[in-house]
Amino acid sequence: MLRGCGTALVTPFKDGAVDYEAFAALVDRQVAGGVDFLVPLGTTGETPCLTDEEKINLLHITKEHSNGLPVMAGVGTNSLEQTIANIRLLEPHGVDYFLVVVPYYNKPPQEGLYQYFKAVAEAASKPVVLYNVPGRTGTNMTAQTTLRLAALGNIVAVKEASSNRDQILEIIAGRPDGFSVLSGNDDETFDLMKNGADGIISVASNIVPAMVTELAHDMLEGKENEALAIHEKLMPLFKNCFVESNPIPTKAALSAMGLMHNELRLPLVPASQPAYELMTETIKDLKLL
Hints:
alpha/beta; TIM Barrel; two-stranded antiparallel sheet; 12 helices; 10 strands
């Protein structure tokens, strides 16, 4: 089962190009921080704005610097044909799991979601992780649909970022053996793991990999008081990472720490001055500056 902390990796840019050197250093920092798995090419990685060549290069670097950790690559689009094309593009390059987001913009019904993910799972050579994030996609995948999909052989986990607590707890209660439920929102990890979730695919762990990993591991080991202390300490960071569209605030923090340039690809732009100052103060409070 997928458990613990996985980091939804940002993609550094420099003068419009992917900064592969900075990316490799970021992956090294994640490994040193003790994370359990790595998630390149997701929403946080600005993947819709990457070329196929860039995706392959980033995946190669992730794998080379992973120190054997599992690698979960984002491949989802709003087209079955394009999602399968992404799977075919990346599967020769060391992927361990495919992360597939609910199709965005189309607003499919629940039966459409079921048939879509079933077709993806049948096409994929590696296990599939569902990703429900209605704030980004415009469509919520219900607990009933998730549990129908969990019964299929090649679908092994869900990243749940709906913030619908009752829905997520229903998935946890009804899931089959071996199916992982992962928080998709850092600020909800403590509560969801307290109620049986298995871990987090984290944005904040780009900034504080060791601390988010420790929180997840403490919860897995039943050290609730220790985990709560970390959760409360990190709550300002968890919230402030989303004061503007992800990954804008996270990149602001990482640039203030000297780990990458504060650069994004349009239609995203660097943090506003108030957001940059907020992230700088946040990481100062954590003694990262």
